[in-house]
Amino acid sequence: MGLLRIMMPHKFQLLAVMAFGVAMLCIENQIQKLEESRAKLERTMARHEVREVEQRQTRDSLRDSPALPEIEDLIIIYNRVPKTASTSFTNIAYDLCGKNRFHVLHINTTKNNPVMSLQDQVTCPLHYTQLMALFHCMVRLSLAWFGLFGVKGKPVYINIVRDPIERLVSYYYFLRFGDDYRPGLRRRKQGDKKTFDECVSSGGSDCAPEKLWLQIPFFCGHYSECWNVGSRWALEQAKYNLVNEYLLVGVTEELEDFIMMLEAALPRFFRGATELYRTGKKSHLRKTSEKKPPTKESISKLQQSNIWKMENEFYEFALEQFQFVRAHSVREKDGELYLLAQNYFYEKIYPKVN
């Protein structure tokens, strides 16, 4: 090296030293980057291991912990629309209430008035609060939708709708011939033998398009505009209440699916309801007697009315919403319906469970 230093000119010696220094700096820089990358990788692996431990602890704690207690102050309000299979549905609740430990209250109003007086709207929340303090219960009443003012706990609203013409035809014959539920009871129009088709052809009042206006006001509520026949505002308000105030609104034509979904959502009340509906003797207890299907001519005449168009629009809206909810709750296999398994899970819980 000394001989090389003697033989090399001073200028080349200086360049060699500088090149050596630069090379060393590059090597040190690469070493530092490698160390930083290693440290970053170690931190990432550590966070991953901690996350795995947290998730494992969470899963273990959820698996080992007792089931969450069910709500003990829940009240279901079923403001049933007449002639939509309400008695068939309520009979299932009657059969289950003893086994599932809840009460069913059937509330009637004077002359079946679907609108509550102002004083009743004020006192009803007081009674509701008292019921909340006593027991689980399902309240069945024939009232237009109403909110409960001044109460902390909100009830669960459910209901059923039906094709508007089918509902009117059923109601028409029910008033004349009753049903097989209480066959000896005299009905308001008993003795009138005129068929529904004869009523439509003669322009009778009991089959007039105005008689179709019922499901919209029942869902619209206690606003005066709800009861103005043919009100577009009432229709839109009914739609709003259906999707914002009701847990579930079924359709008469698909009653079994409605019951199955209620059993899945509210097992405290409806555990065993689906099997009871399929095999029980009371699931279709109430049937209107002497009912004759209307002709195509009668149906076509009613369908020319704007009132039918609006009631049918509401029914189609309710049906579409019900089918949407059902599609995310139920699957069909080999002709049988099955509830979907729970598809949500707890990924993290803070503060951490020890």
Automatic annotation (TrEMBL):
Annotated compartments: Golgi apparatus membrane
InterPro entries on file: Heparan_SO4_2-O-STrfase, P-loop_NTPase, Sulfotransferase
Topological relation to the membrane, as annotated: Single-pass type II membrane protein
Keywords attached to this entry: Coiled coil, Disulfide bond, Glycoprotein, Golgi apparatus, Membrane, Signal-anchor, Transferase, Transmembrane, Transmembrane helix
Gene3D superfamilies per UniProt: P-loop containing nucleotide triphosphate hydrolases
Pfam families linked: Sulfotransfer_2
UniProt entry tagged with the keyword Transmembrane: yes
GO CC aspect terms: Golgi membrane
Coiled-coil zones: 24-51
Highest taxon in the source lineage: Eukaryota
Molecular function via GO: heparan sulfate 2-sulfotransferase activity
PANTHER family per UniProt: HEPARAN SULFATE 2-O-SULFOTRANSFERASE, HEPARAN SULFATE 2-O-SULFOTRANSFERASE 1 ISOFORM X1
Family: Belongs to the sulfotransferase 3 family.
Protein's name according to its UniProt entry: Heparan sulfate 2-O-sulfotransferase 1
Source organism per UniProt: Cyprinus carpio
Gene assigned in the entry: LOC109063239
